[in-house]
Amino acid sequence: MPNPKRRWSHARKGMRDANKALTPAATSVCPRCSASKRPHEICGNCGFYKGQQMLQSKPLS
Which residues, 6 or more positions from 45, have their beta carbon under 8 angstroms from its beta carbon? Predict the structure, then answer.
């Protein structure tokens, strides 16, 4: 396998690493209960997705 002929400079490593920052997860608002949830997933609060109940809600007691 080929090996690099020279070291990469600190500036070049910094430019490469500048694009590795993490971005926060996207969130949307549930139209039924107004809780925040991830897009295209079942709401963890009410259990609805696209107007249909997918999960049974937990009893309060």
Answer: 30, 33, 35, 37
